[in-house]
Amino acid sequence: SAPNYFVTSLAVADCLVGLVVMPFSAAYEVANHAWFFGIDWCDAWRSLDVLASTASILNLCVISLDHYMAITDPFSYPARMTGRRAAALITAVWVCSGAISFPAIAWWRAVRPEHVPPYKCPFTENLSYLVFSSTISFYLPLFVMVFTYYRIYRAAVVQTRSLKLGTKQVLMASGELELTLRIHRGGQPSKALNSKNFSLSRKLAKFAKEKKAAKTLGIVMGVFIVCWLPFFIVNPLSVVLPQQELFSAVVCWLGWLNSGMNPVIYACWSRDFRRAFVRILCVCCPRRMRRKYQPALRSKPSQFLGNTAVMLAHSSVGYSSVGRHQHQPQHQLYRI
Q1: Can you tell me whether residue 170 is helix, strand or coil?
Q2: Which of 51, 151, 246, 252 has its CA at 20 to 30 Å from residue 197's CA atom?
Q3: Domain ranges in the chain?
């Protein structure tokens, strides 16, 4: 599904940070800012740092947009967010990240001093580039994420209030509310369940699942702001203020820490990704570990929804030219 594609792209970016960027940075810090890997690898390392960090942030932005669409317009979401569109968004994320990183390094190689101090790995301090890259890599995605999560939170508040009244309201992307009357009835539901009603029940179940995913997104966004905001405040200011190497290193590592926190958050808060991690673990572990985790793999993800039978009465309300109220109920029975 599209959300899994986006999280996979995020995982690739975070793995690049953890496997390529952070180890060489650790060696650089331990050696008291002495670079022993050559000037060419210095440029490549700087490029990969900007590429992976920007891709990680932009992937978080795309994930927030995906959840926003799924929450605010759940019925048309499957048709709108197809696999092809998800692939196009992921491609745009990586192309944009590459456009910020690699051309900048090529330009830096052309304008930097010919005689670089030995065992140093300098990077551009051009204020225009730092402001531009910070805006594209952080501030614009931050604005999008705050906006989408606010709309998701607003939709969740509407859902909570409507459930107390015995109704279900879906806040659509257009800002309109779609009202659904929920009536709980005892006994067994009717067996006259057509495919259309079953499809509707699956969409509503997916909507509930997306609400839980939105909570995960909120935690991810909070950690993202705490980790990256100090760096993108200090980064442009480092050109005009005296550099504090220790402080700069701390805020830089704090930003990279975000890439290590993302998998932990998704593993702790998302049941689907926990199951995926367990399957990977079982492949790499002995049979004893497989027997230990096998019950978790057999359980159904939808068990938390229960087997509650509900009657939905979708009401379409219209007005004639003289202001007469018209009410046309359409009853649909389904099981979730």
Answers
A1: strand
A2: 151
A3: 2-165+210-269
Q: How far is CA 166 from the centre of its chain?
A: 32
What does the CA dihedral 28, 31, 32, 34 come to, rounded to 10 degrees?
Answer: -70
For residue 327, the cross-strand partners are 317
**CATH number 1.20.1070.10 is the correct assignment for the domain at 2-165+210-269:** yes
Answering whether pTM is above 0.85, one says no
Place of tokens 């994320």: 93
Task: Convert the pLDDT of each residue in 203-225 to its tens digit.
Answer: 556 556 666 666 777 788 889 99
Burial class (CB in 10 A: 0-12, 13-18, 19+), 211: middle
Torsion of CA 270, 275, 276, 280, to 10 degrees: 140
Query: Looking at residues 240-251, what average pLDDT do you find?
Result: 79
For residue 149, CA distances in Å to 108, 122, 159, 219, 312 come to 37, 38, 15, 11, 28
pLDDT tens-digit series, residues 44-58 = 999 999 999 999 999
- Give me the count of residues in the chain: 336
Using CB atoms within 10 A of its CB, is residue 97 exposed (0-12), middle (13-18) or buried (19+)? buried
Torsion of CA 198, 199, 204, 209, to 10 degrees: 110
Using CA atoms, how far apart are residues 141 and 54, in angstroms rounded to an integer? Answer: 10
Name the token pair of 87: 């692939």
Per-residue pLDDT tens digits for 270-296:
666 666 556 655 665 555 545 554 554
Q: Which of 211, 186, 203, 208 lies closest to 311 in space, CA to CA?
A: 186
> Minimal CA–CA distance to 3: which of 146, 296, 214?
214
- Rounded to an integer, what distance in angstroms lies between the CA atom of residue 233 and that of residue 280? 39
pLDDT at 318 over 60: no
Q: Exposed, middle or buried: residue 176 (CB in 10 Å: 0-12, 13-18, 19+)? A: exposed
